[in-house]
Automatic annotation (TrEMBL):
Pfam families: TraB_PrgY_gumN
Major location (coarse): membrane
Biological-process GO terms, alphabetical: negative regulation of Wnt signaling pathway; proteolysis; Wnt signaling pathway
Protein name: Metalloprotease TIKI
InterPro entries: TIKI1/2-like, TraB/PrgY/GumN_fam
Organism: Clupea harengus
CDD domains from the UniProt entry: Tiki (cd14789)
UniProt family annotation: Belongs to the TIKI family.
């Protein structure tokens, strides 16, 4: 999705978004949560064709925190669709390899070589603080499931000195107490990807890694240093207790569950970049912040929406007899110049589908499945690993990577590694994206 997703960097989009006006942002989340189907929010849109296809807006938080507030017709649309498409395919090892390569500095360079000395020292000091504090941030439930602080820290920050500064900035924003406490359960978009594979649906992605990654890498050096400095200032203020956390994952979850279709909130979830606009900045720095915001709004929202919309159209035209479920970040469907607007401009009729509204199936029928049978299938959350598919293993039987969210799979891999360690004294080192757990000798 999240995913990249990207999604592990949720605070990178939102913490600084509300520094200028946090109270109005918080107040809008004070809603009464309903569990009646007709009163639930809906991030589902129907593309009217025969068979129908669907857009669904995801969010990069643990799926268990939002699942009960997702309407049954949204779950049914996912279940009945034959093919599920995401922004990126994070279950594909090649995607993760490309993400890793895109984030790294050129061969032979280290972060210490490119950062100003003061910022490098502050960054190193902050990461040492995070590593020291992380054991106290972990919840008893996480520890009970075998997710330990040193393991998780290495998964996220183990290769930080080889990363480009812009990715380090995003990494720092993901190393907060609130973010760490959410690790251990698949985020919503990843959960849907896992379920699509388990249900043997066709899956795919509408974007390539380079299309999401390169705009970040093209930010000029002075802008990157400004962004990293602002991020460190924010974290240092939080450590000193001089400011309160203006926005948390809990706030984002409540906005989603309350059905708040605020495009400002979810566009920053989609663009993956914090909003550094702040009324307290000096005029020159305000200009830099505005330039960064404008650049990424164009590159990571508007241009992506246009590109994604055209590829959705191509898929629909190439497979007129298939029912698709497109699960993208909610911000791609809200505000101006959305993916929906692109489809509508091409002559497609796309309508919002409220909770409780029956799906118009028409000719929709999943291959090899009867619709009546689908109606009676359970829609409760479930996590299973396919017994005959091992997408995370290479020809040697070793995992390419492992999500920190996938604790069930983590336990299986740990047992497998212990057996192999009895036979082998050395394991070859691998590169991992910071979305995935580094498997190494401990």
């Amino acid at each position: 999705m999240m995913l990249v997703t990207w999604g592990v960097f949720i605070h990178a989009f939102l913490i600084l978004l509300v520094r200028a006006n946090p109270w109005s942002f918080r107040d809008s989340a004070n809603c009464e949560l309903n569990r009646k189907q007709t009163e639930l929010n809906s991030f589902l849109w129907t593309i009217k064709r025969d068979p129908p296809s669907y857009f669904y807006g995801t969010i990069h938080v643990p799926y268990t925190r939002v699942w009960d507030f997702i309407p049954e017709n949204s779950k049914k649309a996912f279940q009945e669709s034959q093919i599920v498409y995401f922004e990126l395919d994070l279950t594909d090892p090649h995607t993760i390899s490309a993400l890793t390569s895109c984030q790294l500095l050129p061969q032979g360079e280290n972060l210490q070589d490119v950062l100003p000395r003061d910022i490098y020292r502050r960054l190193k000091r902050h990461l040492e603080y995070v590593k020291l504090m992380m054991p106290s941030w972990m919840t008893p439930d996480q520890r009970g499931k075998g997710l330990y602080a040193d393991y998780l820290f290495n998964a996220i920050a183990g290769n930080w000195e080889r990363k480009r500064p812009v990715w380090v900035m995003l990494m720092v924003n993901s190393l907060t107490e609130a973010d760490i406490k959410t690790r251990g359960v698949p985020v919503l978009d990843l959960y849907l990807a896992q379920e699509a594979e388990r249900m043997r649906k066709g899956t795919g992605a509408v974007e390539m890694v380079e299309e999401q990654c390169h705009p970040l890498n093209r930010l000029n050096f002075s802008q990157v240093i400004f962004a990293l400095n602002q991020t460190l200032l924010q974290q240092e203020s939080l450590r000193a207790g001089s400011v309160q956390i203006p926005y948390t994952t809990e706030d984002l979850i409540k906005h989603y569950n309350c059905g708040d279709l605020n495009s400002i909130i979810f566009n920053h979830d989609t663009s993956q970049v914090p909003n550094f606009n702040n009324v307290t900045l000096p005029p020159k720095e305000q200009i830099t912040a505005q330039e960064i915001d404008s650049y990424f709004r164009q590159e990571l929202i508007y241009k992506r929406n246009e590109r994604m919309g055209k590829r959705v159209r191509a898929l629909l035209e190439e497979h007129p007899d298939k029912s698709f479920f497109f699960a993208f970040g909610a911000g791609h469907f809200l505000g101006n110049n959305t993916v929906i607007d692109v489809l509508r401009s091409q002559g497609y009729e796309v309508e919002h589908t409220p909770a409780g509204q029956p799906l118009n199936r028409r000719g929709s029928k999943s291959e090899g499945q009867d619709l009546d049978q689908l109606d009676s299938s359970p829609l409760e959350p479930f996590l299973h690993e396919s017994q005959d598919q091992h997408p995370l293993e290479d020809e040697d039987g070793m995992p390419h990577m492992l999500l920190p969210d996938s604790l069930e799979l983590l336990e299986k891999v740990e047992r497998k590694l212990k057996k192999r360690r009895r036979k082998q004294k050395k394991q070859r080192h691998r590169q991992f994206n910071d979305l995935w757990v580094r498997i190494e000798e401990r």
